[in-house]
Amino acid sequence: MTDSYLDEGFLLDKRPGVNQPKRVENARILIANTPMDADKIKVFGSKIQVDAISKVAELELAEKQKMKEKVEKILKHNCSVFINRQLIYNYPEQLFSDAGVMAIEHADFEGVERLALVTGGEIVSTFNNPESTKLGHCKLIEEITIGEDKLLRFSGVAMGEACTIVLRGATKSILEEAERSLHDALCVLALTVKDPRTVCGGGAMEMWMAEAVTKAATETPGKIALAMESFGRALRRLPSIIADNGGYDSADLVSRLRAHHARGEHNMGLDMVNGQVADMTQLGVLEAYRVKYQLVVAASEAAEMILRVDDIIRAAPRRRAPPRRL
Question: Which residues neighbour 48 within 8 Å (Cβ) at sequence distance 6 or greater?
Fold first, then answer.
């Protein structure tokens, strides 16, 4: 994973067509979602009989002419790069090559949507009004090689906000795990941007919440206090789990952590690097408030749902008939 990096550009896992430019500067990008074979002459439910090979050639020529007209409409947009979500067949690809236009076919829907977003263009399906079509722009499009794969990099996009994280690892399972971890980290970052409030990690907040719930339970009469005490014990289990996962003596660490919180030192949490109790604000161990809030709410709702279950009905396994022997 040490070869992973952040690329300052948008990477698209596609390649330009045959005999087309591999590098385009100050690109004018037309992004489309259109079939390039829809204008071919199609005959359904009938047969065509010809008395000479020249008639077949005329039919093929008519098909090519209709496809050529569509390509000419595209070229009237004065674009230097044409990106289509659908296939671009051999003859249109040749026409784009002759015009010096980079044509990229079969760009997936997600890639097309992101390209339109970062380049400032729009996705079109008809080409009758070039003057009203908004093209995308970027300073440089070039073909690059990463390992054994060739990709297209869009640098200096119009919106100025495109980048790509390239993950490289030894096995597919390592890459999948890294992608999941990175996705979780980005989701937490997005939530933190929306709500910049943070709380201390390392079990500090769980211990603080447990202390507050336990204190409230002592002031609450009736059976509700028993449920509150159980909830406090459940919160106190989380620092123990953190210590166990780190391979430390959870009983010793959690007892020391509880003593710090009893003295009002609520920023104290578990330092799993050194195996001791430390100030989480000084170590920079912080968590997003929204993530912590959602975690507590989801766990509470799950526990409440289980407690509402009065009984469990076990269904007998379905009897299987013995196999028939012939």
Answer: 59
Please report, for residues 35, 48, 58, 325, the alpha-carbon distance to residue 42 in angstroms, rounded to integers and kept in the order given: 14, 11, 14, 54
Among all chains, which residue has been given the structure tokens 């920023």?
Answer: 267
Residue type for 283, please? L
- Judged on CB neighbours under 10 Å (0-12, 13-18, 19+), 204 is buried
Separation between Cα atoms, residue 132 and residue 99, nearest integer Å: 22
User: Model pTM?
Assistant: 0.64
- The closest alpha carbon to 78, from 119, 33, 133, belongs to 133
Residue 107, both tokens: 């760009």
Instruction: Give, in order, the Cα–Cα distances in Å from 264 to each of 108, 269, 286.
Output: 55, 13, 19
137-177 per-position pLDDT tens digit:
889 989 888 888 888 888 888 666 778 888 888 888 999 99
